[in-house]
Amino acid sequence: MNSPRFYCREALSPGAHVELPEPVARHAVRVLRLPPGAAMVLFDGRGGQYPATIERIERDRVYAELGAWEEVECESPLAITLVQALQAGDKMDFTIQKAVELGVRDIVPVESRRSVLKLSGERAAKRVAHWQGVAASACEQCGRNQVPLVAPLEKLESWLARPTQAPLRLMLAPDAEDTLLSIPPAKEVQLLIGAEGGLDPQEMIAARQSGFRAVRMGPRVLRTETAGLAALAVLQALWGDLREG
Fold first, then answer.
1. Sheet holding 5-7, edge to edge
2. Are 95 and 55 in the same domain?
3. Are 44 and 7 contacting, i.e. CB atoms less than 8 angstroms apart?
4. Do residues 198 and 176 touch, judged by C-beta distance below 8 A?
5. Ranges for the Ribosomal RNA small subunit methyltransferase E PUA-like domain (predicted)?
6. Is the pTM of this model over 0.85?
7. In this model, does residue 229 exceed pLDDT 60?
């Protein structure tokens, strides 16, 4: 049985004695009911991991001793940035969780004209922090030691207006002529996915002007929560680590 894995935001070091962050300690003690002496794995998102042992438990406070740093990685050689228009309900949580499992490198949430969910100010900042936590939890589950960054929320038009050197920019469109199979391989991809109802026509024009190329995913129209994940899986199978086994 594999040891439970936990993300610690503060930098870790070999042989250190650390107090686990409150959410991690609560999960370890109250949910998993780990006793003193239990083994676990800790990572700080900078790469690699540390085997650790629970030294002692004081009510809800848990202290652990770290072992030697282990160079363990399962990052894809394909660097994918998912540019996802805001989705309603719990769809954003689901999309971010599964995108991390599929090896996405970065996530950029954007507000598009057809986004049902509207966020600004403190609400937007809190939601982005929540999504960053979702990404970290997904890394704990799937074995990744580098946590993808969830960028601050901004309007799609503003993001598209930024200069970029991304070698390949793709957006899904049901009526596109090209498919992913017709695109030459790349090592870095920005993938733009619309919200419910897809991208607005003006947004499509702006995306094309900023270098995005429209591609389709077969003959069926996919929901926003399906489209991005399906495209990520195909990209990893074509150019990433899914083709390796």
1. 5-7, 39-43, 50-58, 61-66, 17-19
2. no
3. yes
4. no
5. 21-66
6. yes
7. yes
224-239 and 91-101 are packed helices; what angle lies between their axes, rounded to 10 degrees? 10
If asked whether residues 108 and 213 sit together in one domain, one would say: yes
* Closest of 146, 107, 144, 103 to residue 234, by C-alpha: 103
pLDDT in tens, 87-111: 988 999 999 999 999 999 999 999 9
Q: Residue 178: which region, alpha, beta or left (left: phi > 0; alpha: psi -120 to 50)?
A: beta
pLDDT of residue 20: 93
pLDDT, tens digit, 9 for 90 and up, residues 33-81: 989 999 999 999 989 999 999 999 988 799 999 999 999 999 999 999 9
Mark whether 42 and 111 lie in a shared domain.
no
Q: Which residue has the tokens 């489209």?
A: 227
CA-closest candidate to residue 211, choices 224, 186, 192: 192
Asked if the structure places residue 223 within a domain, the reply is yes
Using CB atoms within 10 Å of the CB of residue 239, give its burial: 0 to 12 exposed, 13 to 18 middle, 19+ buried. Answer: buried
Number of domains in the chain: 2
Are 100 and 17 contained in the same domain?
no
The whole-angstrom separation of Cα 213 and Cα 166 is 12
Q: What are the Cα distances from residue 159, in Å, to 3, 153, 154, 196, 214? A: 40, 10, 7, 19, 18
- 47 and 97 in one domain? no
CA distance 50 to 35: 19
Q: Which domain holds residue 151?
A: 79-244
